[in-house]
Fold this sequence. Notes:
By secondary structure, this protein is α/β, with parallel strands linked by helices.
Amino acid sequence: MDPELEAFLPLFARPDLSDPFAMRKDYADRSASRPAPDTSGMTVEDRTVPGDPDVPVRIYVPHQARGAVVWMHGGGWVMGDLETEQHWAARIAAGSGAVVVSVGYRVSPEHRFPAALDDAYAALEWTAKHAADFGVDPARIAVGGHSAGGNIAAALALRARDEQGPSIHFQLLNEPSLDDRQETWSQRNFTDTPWANREMVGACWRHYLGTTPATPYAAPARATDLSGLPPAYVSSAEFCPNRDENVDYAVRMLRAGVSVELHQWAGTFHGSQAVLSADVSRRQITGLCTALRRALAE
Length: 298
């Protein structure tokens, strides 16, 4: 474990998703206790995207923005919303110079798969249609997310390819949850890792899927054909149950002819980049922002 991160381990509560509603409230309370993000270099506005039902989004527009990313929050498909995600979204907008369309998708267990994906797809279609309103080229739209949000971003890329939907220029996948089967070495062995462990990840999948069998749009690692997907940046944490499926997915995309940049961050755990005082966290966030900025400039 990175020693700068290890000092903060007592602050990361052991998640208990046996009561997803209590966990959701605790997650929101912890987020609300943090100082508001610095948005002085951008405009921020809330919109509603037409859908079934309509989807709330929060749009962060940096000055002289180039390109946009449809961004999905983490939280195991159970926790998180536009408020809890403001810290991530504002930081990505400031660091990358991209318009960030943060999606307030429906969460589980009230709204199981494919509700979150449908909401995100509606946001993607809306962003492609209205990109010029924010001074953005519709050909420079990325999808991205952290954890469960990374799952949705990867699924968006698959669905848009299969349905000849909006053109996606880039995928930004940070510690994504990709495989419900939990059969990799990291999923089987990381039973006591900070914040996310095998039990917690399994509970998230159960809340998300219910009794519905997983498809590649629910669990992108199940996709047999990864050709024709947009270039990707995949970031994984060493002590994260998702680690091996992140690496496997990146390698499989490479073998399918997709350009991929893969970063495995030594000494980190799932979500540890929230410890902003740690050097490795700052490098992780800079890596995400730099990859997005570079991709949307190409």
